[in-house]
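Appendix B.2, paired examples.
Example (i):
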Amino acid sequence: MTNDDEKFQSRVQALLADSVARLDPADRDERIAYCREHNEHGVRMHPSTDDDLLEFRWGGKQLALVHRDVLLDEGPFRAEFIADDVPDALPGDWDDQREGGGSPS
């Protein structure tokens, strides 16, 4: 194993430990129950092919999503928690648009 491989592996372990530590106890318990029910233990990594993102899933849900370069950097992680139930697009009433498509004056 090369130094780069060891660094990558160490950063992945740190990322996963930090991500699990940030879960609230109810979420953590749900994930453990899911793993037991589906006999699907451990964290799975799913690399994307087009944008170099790495998705880590545990317990049937996303645990972490990072750019590959984050795991090769030297500096500390700058993690941010994002809930699974956040919509992909903002509802129309969140953008202060009024009926008719105009912006408020």
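Example (ii):
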Amino acid sequence: MDKKRILLIIAFIAVAALIAFGLFYFFFRGAPTPPAAPPVTAPPIGVLPPAAPAAPQAPVVTPPVAPGLPQATSVARGGLTETNVITSAATQNATLAADGTSMQYWNKTDGKFYRITPDGLVKQMSGETFYSVQNVTWSPDKNRAVLEYPDGSKIIYNFNTQKQVTIPRFWQDFSFSPQSDKIVSKSIGVDPNNRWLVISGADGTGTKAVEPLGENADKVTVNWSPNGQMIAFSHTGDYQGFARQEVIPIGQNHENFKSFTVEGLGFTPLWSPEGDKLIYSVYNADSGYRPTLWATTASTDSFSARKPLGLNTWADKCAIKNDVAYCAVPTSLDEGAGFERTIADETPDVFYKIDLTTGTKTLLAIPTADASATNVQVSADGQYLFYTGKLDGVLYKIRLK
């Protein structure tokens, strides 16, 4: 019994000792002494201490620097080309003057007609003020013009004599003869039986009916040829299949000219100054109903050697000089633009040069001024190309050589 009691006492003392050691270790033991810091060596005066190594980072990728914008050239060479503003005010139906270098136009701001020379000299063509002119059709000699107004009234004004004559309101779509002494137009009566293609003197006298129009007035394009023999084109020929038209030239003396077929709708013609060539635009399903330029040789016997020029634009956005066509071509055209050309009014144009003998086309100029071009003209010396902005009416020029 004594041994057993002695062993229990020893065990109790051992357990008590372990508990006491645990309490001391966890609650009463002092904090460990930190290791001695390495000696600090001061950097030399004026020198920063070295920085600690930086954490690894993803490499910095420098975006490629865009090449500089192309510089505009002063002469058209197929790229960006300086465009000079000739008039700050809006103009209407600007045209090349008889001297072949000046431009003449109606000023929308003050209602007067002006002629501006290449060196910028501006001269009034008349002391008269013509308010709210809607359209101007110039004679080839540029001394006369048919002026049309929003209320339907129309006059022929002679800038040489400073006199005007009033012509019937129901006349429309005018074109002057090559000698500028006559005009052809459509006389549109209320009764279809009283609708005629008519010719009159440039003073409005001596009117004669040439061809009945009936219900087909909208199928006739008035356009007096430079040789004087053809006065219009009729799209009333025989059916040629979908989106193909037989076009019949109309003469002033009932001549029986040979017709020709165009591959599309919306026939819009432009004669060369010599009258031996014709460019025209049409649209069809193959072009997404976008206007496409074609060229053909022209004579009283036939229109032959028709060939596509591979440009989507309208013929009346072109000018022809020395068998070369200068055409304003929209930078883009929506499908169906042939049906509604106003959708291209806000689309800027570039200019192409087309050799009508070979059909070769080259980019001529990208104007520095964005505009949809109308009234494209080339000076007689071939030095300048003029055009009017469709929306702003401003007159521009580009140097060709």
